């Protein structure tokens, strides 16, 4: 499940524009693999908007966001719900009923390990923060507090985008802590015990000018609107009231940072667009030359083959090594043995026509075995995972040194086999495994070094990749295995594999 919510304070927008903002926000999150969507609307339809201004109308729809778009025509608070339980649950908006018809609607993403009933509205957030177990992200909205929203998270991501043409009061929001035993309750004298919210403890546009806030689970949903965001941390409670944003916590713990900074996203809209590619997965694969260079930028000097080792301090939460890309490889501290990694990756990517022929042949098979040793065992596992996820074909990554412990029984002339053999310390042993497969009438496709004349000469089918140092060779040898499922027949939903979600919501 993922969240997208929008609050508008004094910014001229038609209801149609607001609707488009919300639907577009959901569509930006849809790539994560969701199968249903719902919205909570302020008021009713256009004809009775004023009469229903104090109500929240719920609309839900199974399938893609496009189906929901056809149903919704008003301002809304949307969320996506992934049916990971396998149950076809028709209800998508979540309404909590309390005494005196105090209704709260929550936009949520969660994995909870317990259940708790709240008896008063004032206890709702306290129970959610102190008593809930597991991971969750929540955004609350009440009919009694129009134009207001409260969000919190634990484990699951939640950020707040801020958009205003005017100067903001601060770029660092201080954390407010409760002063007594109840977060939203009252003390014995009947007074509220929350820390005071004033101009020094919240974020707002100077002179109370227009501002818009976006709650989202992913930066991709807000980047086309703003690049200024606040990332909430576990157990933060963010409240937006009358255009002012404040952040609270239930209790103070050692090591807590005193505030949350307004950060600038280093992201561009084109990064979340497919462009000329058929799928996001294909785009990410072909962006790898730039991704690897970005990872090494500022850390590796190719002129004298030296590397800059070190960690960057980010905030007060710990030391990190920024990868500089969304790719799966971090090579920031390795001494490289080749001058142009981006060119080598481009050389492998240029073989997509050859790999597509192999993908077409494998498409009608029911199973495939991928074998390798040493550094390339992990490559085999990754390749097998991608093939089974995208093509729904049974695939196994097998350690070539363990063929006689069972896997060799699967090999015959009909079983597709892919082997990775590179000139490293396992080369001789991989050649032995290759002969074992051939002796059982196997017809393996060998991914090998383009300079390995012996392997190329002795095998009918090879995929030749450039040479690199052994510890980095996997960056090149994994690319053909990445391309195989992507180049399969277009009937497959590469970006939306069945039964899977990019954002995992089960434990």
TrEMBL record:
Record keyword Endoplasmic reticulum present: no
EC number: 2.6.1.16
CDD domains to which the protein is assigned, alphabetical: SIS_GlmS_GlmD_2
Chemical reaction(s) catalysed: D-fructose 6-phosphate + L-glutamine = D-glucosamine 6-phosphate + L-glutamate
UniProt-recorded name of the protein: glutamine--fructose-6-phosphate transaminase (isomerizing)
GO biological process: fructose 6-phosphate metabolic process; protein N-linked glycosylation; UDP-N-acetylglucosamine metabolic process
All copies of domain Glutamine amidotransferase type-2, residue ranges: 2-243
Pfam families assigned to the protein according to its UniProt record, in alphabetical order: SIS
Annotated SIS domain residues: 358-497
Organism from which the protein derives: Zonotrichia albicollis
InterPro entries: GATase_2_dom, GlmS/FrlB_SIS, Ntn_hydrolases_N, SIS_dom, SIS_dom_sf
Assigned keywords, A-Z: Glutamine amidotransferase, Transferase
UniProt-recorded Gene Ontology molecular function terms: carbohydrate derivative binding; glutamine-fructose-6-phosphate transaminase (isomerizing) activity
């Amino acid at each position: 499940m993922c969240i997208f919510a929008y609050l508008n304070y004094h910014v001229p927008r038609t209801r149609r524009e607001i609707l488009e903002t919300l639907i577009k926000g959901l569509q930006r999150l849809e790539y994560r693999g969701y199968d249903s969507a719902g919205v909570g609307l302020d008021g009713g339809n256009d004809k009775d908007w004023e009469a229903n201004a104090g109500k929240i109308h719920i609309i839900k729809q199974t399938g893609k966001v496009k189906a929901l778009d056809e149903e919704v025509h008003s301002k809304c608070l949307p969320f996506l719900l992934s049916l990971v339980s396998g149950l076809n649950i028709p209800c998508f908006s979540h309404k909590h009923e309390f005494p005196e018809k105090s209704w709260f609607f929550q936009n949520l993403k969660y994995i909870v390990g317990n259940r708790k009933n709240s008896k008063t509205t004032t206890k709702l957030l306290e129970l959610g923060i102190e008593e809930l177990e597991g991971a969750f992200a929540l955004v609350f909205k009440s009919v009694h507090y129009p134009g207001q929203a409260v969000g919190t998270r634990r484990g699951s991501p939640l950020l707040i985008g801020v958009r205003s043409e005017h100067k903001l009061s601060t770029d660092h929001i201080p954390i407010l802590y409760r002063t007594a035993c109840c977060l939203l309750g009252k003390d014995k004298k009947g007074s509220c015990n929350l820390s005071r919210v004033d101009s020094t403890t919240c974020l707002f546009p100077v002179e109370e000018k227009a501002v818009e806030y976006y709650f989202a689970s992913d930066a991709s949903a807000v980047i086309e609107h703003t690049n200024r965001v606040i990332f909430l941390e576990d157990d933060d409670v963010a409240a937006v009231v009358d255009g002012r944003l404040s952040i609270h916590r239930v209790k103070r713990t050692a090591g807590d940072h005193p505030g949350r900074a307004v950060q600038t996203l280093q992201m561009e809209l084109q990064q979340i667009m497919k462009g000329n590619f058929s799928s996001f997965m294909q785009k990410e694969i072909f962006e790898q030359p730039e991704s690897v260079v970005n990872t090494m930028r500022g850390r590796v000097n190719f002129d004298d083959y030296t590397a800059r080792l070190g960690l960057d301090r980010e905030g007060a939460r710990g030391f990190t090594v920024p990868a500089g890309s969304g790719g799966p490889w971090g090579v920031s501290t390795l001494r490289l043995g080749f001058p142009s990694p981006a060119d080598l990756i481009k050389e492998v990517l240029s073989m997509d026509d050859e790999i597509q022929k192999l993908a077409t042949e494998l498409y009608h098979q029911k199973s495939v075995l991928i074998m390798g040793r040493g550094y390339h065992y992990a490559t085999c596992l990754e390749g097998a995972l991608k093939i089974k996820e995208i093509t729904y074909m049974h695939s196994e990554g097998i350690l070539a040194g363990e063929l006689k412990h069972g896997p060799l029984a699967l090999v015959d002339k009909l079983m597709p086999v892919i082997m990775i053999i590179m000139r490293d310390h396992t080369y001789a042993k991989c050649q032995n495994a290759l002969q074992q497969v051939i002796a059982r009438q196997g017809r393996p496709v060998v991914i090998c070094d383009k300079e390995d004349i012996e392997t190329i000469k002795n095998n009918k089918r090879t995929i030749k990749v450039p040479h690199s140092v052994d510890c980095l060779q996997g960056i090149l040898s994994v690319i053909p295995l990445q391309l195989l499922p992507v180049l399969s027949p277009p009937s497959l939903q590469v970006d939306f594999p069945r039964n899977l979600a990019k954002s995992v919501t089960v434990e």
